[in-house]
Amino acid sequence: MGKAAAVVWDEALLGYDMGEDHPLNPVRLDLTLRLATALGVLDGVELVRPAPADPADIERVHEPSYIAAVQAAPTAGWDVGHGLGTPDNPVFVRMHEAASLVVGGSVEAARRIASGEVDRAVNIAGGLHHAMRDHAAGFCVYNDCAAAIAWLLDNGMERVAYLDVDVHHGDGVQAAFYDDPRVLTISLHESPMSLWPGTGWPNEVGGPGAEGTAVNVALPPGTSDAHWLRAFHAVVPGLLAEFRPQVLVTQCGADTHAEDPLADLSLSVDAHRATYVALRDLATRYAGGRWLALGGGGYELLRVVPRSWTHLLATVLDRDVDPATPLPADWVAHAARLAPHRPLPASMTDGCDPEYQPWGGSEGQPVDRAILDTRRAVFPLHGLDPDDPRD
Predict the structure, then answer these.
(1) Is 311 helix (H, G, I), strand (E, B) or coil?
(2) 382 catalytically annotated
(3) pLDDT tens-digit profile of 310-365?
(4) From 3.40.50.2000, 3.40.50.790, 3.40.800.20, 1.10.1740.10, which CATH number describes the 5-382 domain?
(5) How far apart (Å, rounded) are the C-alpha atoms in residues 379 and 391?
(6) Which helix H or strand E contains 218, and what residues bound it?
(7) What's the rounded Cα separation, in Å, for the pair 375 and 250?
(8) H/E element, 174
(9) Candidates 82, 96, 129, 130; catalytic one
């Protein structure tokens, strides 16, 4: 990496807080920054402190009536509509301000990449990929992923690839750009047959004039490291090589982990680390090195997310952490006070080997059938052979 990477962070981002009993607890962000700091990952890094998004940046992807509802919700009672005031998306104090700050952080990260100040930037508080144009969904009030992409398109970028590795379908981003051939959205997620939001089928390939620019890999429950990585490498590199984005935007949800309480895939922190390294390599190879990394889901707050996203921060900064690295004693003591009856891992690894066998064109395993379903739906639209593993 020739230029320093931008790391977006301010403790004010912890204000995106839907309540102590809500799965999206901001403690996961605090613990990640504490762990990355304790391991020296952020030594000498000047953190980028975000400002609230300019209203125009939110309006690129959300209806003014919805934004007004978000602003009014904390004082308007609970019957506000637009998906607000539900168990998934409860109203909370200063909701608009908190969500706007997340958008501001992701847009600022995009701006720094577009300006050439940095090649890479990361906002782990971002990745709120479910919010739709006129309503909240899936813990997401404003869609910072879509806002950052829209900003890039309005400021000189002509081709942007969005790659979503969260366990849930990246439905809000897909919906925002379904008819836009300038944006390639790729989502690898648990099958909609078994997991919310029930979308992300292989035959969702893009709207008129944008056919082939929506890509969905629907993975069977229980998919483990080797099979997930096989699917990733069987679909993603060939499409990025053909599309040649100017920027790669990634949503790096950690809820694919085997211990995540809200989903049913079976990945390890070691597979997460291998994925982040692969994303860095793909950005270097196909996007001129320009990589905007965002957070996302992840609900095993102490054991998984801090380790996974510390690996993400380290990968973005070219300060890769050896998986065998022990967790610092001070960090473990702090985390143990938050949940004194929960055992904590000892190191930055789950002890798994993230090796995989490349897809060879067969359909013998359930994951191979998922690979073929996606390739046969999308690859011909890019002039690629869906049955040839060399494409």
Answers:
(1) helix
(2) no
(3) 999 999 999 999 999 999 999 999 999 998 888 999 999 999 999 999 999 888 89
(4) 3.40.800.20
(5) 9
(6) strand 214-219
(7) 20
(8) helix 171-176
(9) 130
